[in-house]
Amino acid sequence: MNQDPIESSPTLESLIQAIAQHRDKQAFVQLFNLMAGKLKFYAIRCGANEQDAEEIVQEALISVWHKASQFNPKTAAATTWLFRIVRNKRIDFVRKSRPDQIQSFDLFPDHGGEELEIDAESDLTAQFTRTLIEYLPDEQRQIVYQVYFEGKSHSEIASEMDLPLGTIKSRLRLALNKLDSLAKEHMSWLIIILLTTY
């Protein structure tokens, strides 16, 4: 007598596939039990408080239920896919509350293919960002520091620096593009830090 593989030894991949193909509620419950705690912990590591983290994870798991068919095990591991959904929900959550403020995830957008250890990423972002910011021109570096490390909005910086809001946004966008390019150039150095720190 053959056993249902989901019941005998469920994997994240098989649970997601069962949700996608059969709208399997039992598979969803199993996925929730396996991952909800880890996803909540990751949301907190990304900067959410406990209450917000619970809301983010709930929204993320609802997305899993509706979008399970989008999971492709050939392009990403199931855990990576799930963490990315939580990360995106966290980004959406912050942007809704402070739409004019750039956050650390804006400095390093998710490109999909370049995967680093999820838990280590959030710990290293600030250290790595500070190093890369030193490569920016002074006028861009000043704005990035005020936005990223001091939490100021575009309009606040424009007022303090007596510059048009459009100029602030333009300089910030140039800085973010430069940081993104620098991050890619220095990726091997970041990997070395990962390997020696964790």
Automatic annotation (TrEMBL):
GO molecular function, one term: DNA binding
GO annotation (BP), single: DNA-templated transcription initiation
Residue span(s) of domain RNA polymerase sigma factor 70 region 4 type: 130-179
Domain of life: Bacteria
InterPro entries hit by this protein: RNA_pol_sigma-70-like, RNA_pol_sigma-70_dom, RNA_pol_sigma70_ECF_CS, RNA_pol_sigma70_r2, RNA_pol_sigma70_r4_t2, RNA_pol_sigma_r2, RNA_pol_sigma_r3/r4-like, WH-like_DNA-bd_sf
SUPFAM superfamilies the record matches: Sigma2 domain of RNA polymerase sigma factors, Sigma3 and sigma4 domains of RNA polymerase sigma factors
Keyword Transcription in record: yes
Domain RNA polymerase sigma-70 region: 35-98
One Pfam assignment: Sigma70_r4_2
Keyword field: DNA-binding, Sigma factor, Transcription, Transcription regulation
Family: Belongs to the sigma-70 factor family. ECF subfamily.
The protein, known as: RNA polymerase sigma factor
Lineage, broadest ranks: Bacteria, Pseudomonadati, Pseudomonadota, Gammaproteobacteria, Alteromonadales
